[in-house]
């Protein structure tokens, strides 16, 4: 077992450190340098059908559903098609409106999650086109979807998803850009710029991972927090959902994500001395707005740990601690901003003596309702 873990203490840590490779493996084959296009081998959706699509549903469970939130933001922004991102266990029971002009994207690491599979089947019955973003080759969802975009993350053993989520984000970046290009919403020149940025991502992931000791020190500092709030706006809000889930899953700490602008509509009443706020500020066009929310929370006695882009150093005047991530194109910040959250949750779980790879009450794949 130790050999399988390559010397790491847990599969989760091993999988966290595999992310530069996973990101590269998922992106590079789809971005050949000799073509000014994204090549998605298993996608049969034609330009003609795509042009008629007037609504996209992105449906998934757990961590994969947060990939869906990122996808909603990106696709609406770059392809200008309305997107609803929803958890499968709700979607399947509300008689959703779909027809042959609907595109459904399902996201699943295992490709076996019961609710996600049921949502896919509903979509197919209604005549919608279904694209699966799936990790396990040959899984039920990969077989039942019309098209598959595989995440090339390799087997994920730890129950809490890390590298599969990063690979899903990469797949979602590719799909968003591809849809926008097909619809003539994104020029070749703009694509070439984005491709350049995508090629830089594995190295930037490594730069975040190189801060592991600093992030461990922060986990040790905040290990006794009782209530942890994750806030962000836009793409950062989607990332904050995943950060809070990771802390709940493996550290068993009470952690809640909130859209930063919603704080004053209720949750701010929960803030007291020694609450911990993880403030995400990587979605730069909303930076000032989130910073003002962080100040409001700080003024009420919370400790603030910010995750920020490397040159937004003024955040250090407000936050108690800051983890910086490299700058990238705004579309791709979610990948880099999430990685410190994985490491933070990992070391809190280890510090509290929990079974990191097999957290209580959880299963890797949920094949019952
Ligand atoms: C379970 C796992 C989660 C995962 C979710 C969806 O609850 O514990 O880590 O995000 O299922 O799984 P899927 O295989 O569909 O991505």
Automatic annotation (TrEMBL):
Its EC number is 2.6.1.16. Signal peptide: none annotated. This is Glutamine--fructose-6-phosphate aminotransferase [isomerizing]. It catalyses: D-fructose 6-phosphate + L-glutamine = D-glucosamine 6-phosphate + L-glutamate. One of its GO terms (molecular function) is carbohydrate derivative binding. The keyword Amino-acid biosynthesis does not apply. Keywords: Aminotransferase, Cytoplasm, Glutamine amidotransferase, Repeat, Transferase. It comes from Vallitalea pronyensis. One of its GO terms (biological process) is fructose 6-phosphate metabolic process. The keyword Flavoprotein does not apply. One of its GO terms (cellular component) is cytosol. Catalyzes the first step in hexosamine metabolism, converting fructose-6P into glucosamine-6P using glutamine as a nitrogen source. Homodimer. Residues 46-185, 218-359 form the SIS domain. It comes from the Bacteria.
């Amino acid at each position: 077992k130790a050999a399988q873990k390559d010397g790491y203490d847990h599969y989760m840590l091993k999988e966290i450190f595999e992310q530069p490779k996973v990101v590269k493996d998922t992106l590079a084959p789809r971005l050949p340098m000799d073509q000014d296009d994204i090549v998605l081998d298993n996608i049969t959706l034609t330009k003609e059908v795509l042009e008629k699509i007037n609504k996209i549903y992105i449906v998934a469970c757990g961590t994969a559903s947060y990939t869906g939130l990122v996808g909603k933001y990106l696709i609406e922004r770059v392809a200008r098609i309305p997107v609803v991102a929803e958890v499968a266990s709700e979607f399947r029971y509300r008689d959703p409106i779909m027809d042959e002009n609907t595109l459904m994207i399902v996201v699943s690491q295992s490709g076996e999650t019961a609710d996600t599979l049921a949502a896919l089947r509903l979509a197919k019955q209604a005549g919608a086109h279904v694209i699966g973003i799936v990790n396990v080759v040959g899984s039920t969802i990969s077989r039942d979807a019309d098209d598959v975009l595989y995440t090339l993350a390799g087997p994920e053993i730890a129950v809490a998803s890390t590298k599969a989520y990063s690979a899903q984000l990469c797949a979602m970046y590719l799909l968003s850009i591809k849809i926008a290009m097909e619809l003539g919403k994104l020029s070749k020149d703009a694509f070439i710029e984005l491709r350049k940025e995508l090629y830089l991502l594995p190295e930037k992931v490594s730069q975040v991972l190189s801060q592991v000791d600093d992030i461990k020190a922060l986990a040790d500092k905040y290990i006794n927090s009782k209530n942890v709030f994750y806030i962000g706006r836009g793409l950062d809000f989607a990332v904050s959902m995943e950060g809070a889930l990771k802390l709940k899953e493996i550290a068993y700490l009470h952690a809640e994500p909130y859209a930063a602008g919603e704080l004053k509509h209720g949750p701010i009443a929960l803030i007291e001395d020694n609450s911990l706020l993880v403030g995400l500020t990587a979605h730069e066009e909303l930076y000032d707005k989130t910073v003002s929310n962080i100040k409001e929370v700080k003024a009420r006695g919370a400790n603030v740990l910010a995750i920020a882009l490397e040159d937004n150093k003024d955040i250090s005047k407000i936050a108690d601690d800051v983890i910086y991530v490299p700058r990238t194109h705004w579309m791709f910040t979610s990948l880099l901003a999430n990685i410190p959250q994985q490491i933070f949750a990992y070391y809190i779980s280890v510090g509290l003596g929990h079974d990191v790879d097999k957290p209580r009450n959880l299963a890797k794949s949920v094949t019952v309702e």
